[in-house]
Write a structure and sequence with these properties.
Structural class: mainly beta
Shape: elongated
CATH architecture of the largest domain: Beta Barrel
Length: 268
Amino acid sequence: MGSTGIPSYSTTPIENETVDGTYTWKEGQLPSTVNNSKRQNLTDLRNAFNDLAWFDYGTGTQDTSTHLGEDSVYASATSFTITGADVTAAYHPFRLIRAVGDTTGTIYGAITSSSYNAGTATTTVNVSWNTDAGLQNEALTICIFQVPAMGGGPFEIIVESAAATEGVVHDVYVAWPFAVYGYVIQADVSGSIVFDIWANTFATDDPPVLAETITASAKPTLSSQQQVLSTTLTGWTRVCAASTALRVNIDSLSTITRYTVTLLCRRV
């Protein structure tokens, strides 16, 4: 079953002969059907405005054979497909996205990439979710944020040091709400280093402490390496509120004397 309401409407006026696949707007319709059809249209408008930030875009128009929007179909925990159109322009990197399913629940994230296969007329969309939980193989309603990602979407928090020592090494303040989706570590030589990152809401004389770690057991780590990029953040508290204080701690290090650690983030 495809989408209903406004997402099921066509961008071609002549194709809008039914509302939600039930109520008719066909030529010569019975006068007794006009009220119900118009009332359904008004209901669809109200429902859309009640959830105005999110839209079930699908293929960008309805399927004219069923008068219902095209479903987003599960492909993996971090990807889904849409068949019938190249919609990579709408599903572009860093656009925020919401998925809803009976088992999936309601989860949020951002698109990392999308691609179109002309042979199968299928668009595949890859997503970085704000939680370890991903999509489940079930009927899904997937909506894109109405405002495309334009300047101010992705950003980086860069922490550098001229002399690496164990313990607290940096404090960073971030004014807006954000989600972490990866990290990069670079060092002067091949070696080992383990970072921990603590976070809390900024307050005078209340810096983050160990108990407020956001990295769980998947701490940013170099292990006999000189650089690494990782988007595997198992167990992390990925989403931070506005006015967040971050504290970077070095748990252990060997050989390395200078490093740069970069948190890959996006505004939410």
